[in-house]
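dumping this here so i dont lose it
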């Protein structure tokens, strides 16, 4: 056999082996995550959201949840879709919630791969990287995914966010959507509203992303060049964008938000002092919470630098949404570490989008340095996430103190 052919054959076998190893590690991660979920009980806000909120009476059915969310909207905040979902999950019990949470981690990882448009042959590895990233790059893995209230606010709601932007990204990339336009138009009503009503920073960012795609589609510029806008596509795109805007307004303009703002820690401070404190919170979010995700993106950008000489509009949109969701928190009197979850997801999508573009390039198979760097980086991320979960389990078992 010719040495070149032997080398190519070896590379193909190696690629298959990587896929098998990625599947095994993905399964191991999900098993560890499920075991960790089983050891973390309903706690803190979970106990409060198990009630009608306005009283200590426990919720028993969907009618109670509707009543609780009415009180929530007027007295506590506008994230009624998120916390309504939370109450449904709490009503199902801890075992069902733990199973759902584990499945949600897998679904979110799959949607990240779909949104990033990774080619089929590289999806097992990309799925592993996505799953590893949402634990290993997470500023607070426990409070954003394993605490039930945090899971509803970030893990579950991000699934709806990615489902909302996925058809827009299909249009951006010139791909055909298999769902009929009338059906998609109907689906975009709840998806757009839930996305907009998700939380105060991600909803507006996703509205801007969908608006940018619509404007690009109308102008026929860049990746749309030479394509004529289809009326059926424009209908569902505009419907989704409109309901995302409506959801954002409903969330932000909730009377409960203003009631809570009046009780915020900086409510009595002067404007200059507020600006200083909020600038500090933004800096802390950047340097403490988001730096791991940013560094990983930089590594992927360097490794995938040969990707047809440009990164594509989708990558730029992901980064723009990350920046918007990060900057929007300046308007909030508090910026907890878990609130960076959506921003982190957008950065991961940008990194995997670069990986997907390069993985589909023939040059990728020959670029051993970049392949090894991506694999090593992915393993480090995975080990970091596994360390968090295994440390918690070891503490629970009493193996370490």
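and the seq i came up w/
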């Amino acid at each position: 056999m010719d040495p070149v052919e032997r080398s190519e054959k070896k590379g193909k076998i190696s690629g298959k082996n990587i896929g098998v190893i990625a599947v095994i590690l993905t399964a191991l991660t999900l098993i560890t995550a499920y075991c960790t979920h089983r050891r973390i009980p309903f706690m803190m806000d979970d106990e409060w959201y198990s009630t009608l909120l306005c009283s200590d009476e426990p919720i028993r059915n969907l009618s109670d949840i509707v009543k609780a969310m009415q009180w929530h909207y007027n007295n506590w905040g506008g994230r009624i879709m998120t916390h309504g979902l939370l109450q449904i999950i709490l009503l199902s019990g801890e075992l069902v919630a733990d199973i759902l949470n584990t499945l949600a981690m897998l679904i979110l990882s799959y949607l990240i791969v779909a949104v990033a448009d990774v080619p089929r042959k590289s999806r097992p590895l990309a799925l592993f990287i996505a799953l590893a990233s949402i634990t290993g790059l997470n500023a607070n893995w426990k409070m954003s995914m394993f605490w039930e209230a945090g899971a509803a606010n970030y893990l579950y709601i991000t699934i709806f966010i990615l489902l909302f932007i996925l058809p827009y990204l299909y249009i951006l990339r010139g791909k055909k959507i298999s769902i009929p336009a009338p059906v998609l138009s109907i689906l975009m009503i709840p998806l757009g509203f839930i996305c907009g009503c998700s939380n105060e920073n991600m909803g507006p960012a996703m509205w801007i992303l969908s608006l940018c795609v619509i404007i690009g589609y109308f102008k026929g510029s860049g990746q749309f060049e030479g394509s004529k806008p289809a009326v059926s596509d424009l209908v569902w795109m505009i419907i989704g964008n409109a309901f995302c805007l409506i959801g954002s307004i409903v969330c932000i303009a909730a009377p409960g938000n203003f009631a809570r703002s009046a009780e915020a820690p900086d409510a009595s401070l002067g404007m200059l002092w507020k600006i200083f404190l909020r600038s500090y919170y933004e800096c802390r979010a950047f340097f403490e919470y988001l730096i791991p995700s940013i560094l990983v993106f930089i590594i992927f950008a360097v490794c995938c630098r040969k990707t047809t000489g440009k990164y594509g509009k989708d990558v730029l949109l992901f980064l723009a949404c990350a920046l918007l969701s990060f900057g929007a928190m300046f308007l909030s009197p508090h910026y907890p570490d878990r609130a960076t979850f959506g921003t982190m997801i957008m950065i991961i999508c940008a990194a995997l989008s670069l990986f997907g573009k390069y993985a589909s390039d023939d040059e990728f198979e020959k670029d051993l340095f970049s392949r090894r760097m991506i694999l090593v980086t992915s393993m480090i991320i995975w080990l970091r996430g596994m360390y968090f979960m295994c440390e918690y389990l070891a503490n629970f078992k009493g193996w370490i103190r």
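The first helix runs from residue 3 to 39.
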